Amino acid sequence: MGKGKRLFWTPCAAHYIDLILEDFEKKLEVHQVTISNGRRITSYIYSRTILISMLRHFTKGKDLIRPAATRFATAYLTLGCLSDCKI
Fold first, then answer.
1. In 3-state terms, the chain is what percent helix, strand and coil (to 5)?
2. What torsion do the CA atoms of 21, 25, 27, 30 make, to the nearest 10 degrees?
3. Helices 29-46 and 72-85, packing angle to 10 deg
4. 22 or 11: which carries more pLDDT confidence?
């Protein structure tokens, strides 16, 4: 900052939200268990073609958001999608 007088620091809201969700998953056991179960359910469904077909049939073509290893927000999006499609 001393060298560059025109250098500005701007925080990224998406990054901070991701860090907050990461802390939730690491520090709250309820979140750990729920996200772990959601990942297992999603992996189970996507490993069997008949279940993918049934999912798309009963949800009118919707897919579940699959969890990614690097983004913690994706885990919560997946849980929301599972909740919407649970019927």
1. 65, 0, 35
2. 120
3. 70
4. 22
Residue 81 neighbours by CB distance under 10 Å: 18
- Give CA–CA dist 21/17, Å, rounded: 6
pTM of the model: 0.58
Q: Where are the domains of the chain?
A: 15-85
Give 14-60 pLDDT, tens digit per residue: 778 778 888 888 888 888 888 888 888 888 988 999 988 988 888 88
User: What pLDDT is recorded for position 8?
Assistant: 67
Length of the chain: 87
Q: Which residues contact 21 (CB under 8 A, 6 or more apart)?
A: 72, 73, 75, 76
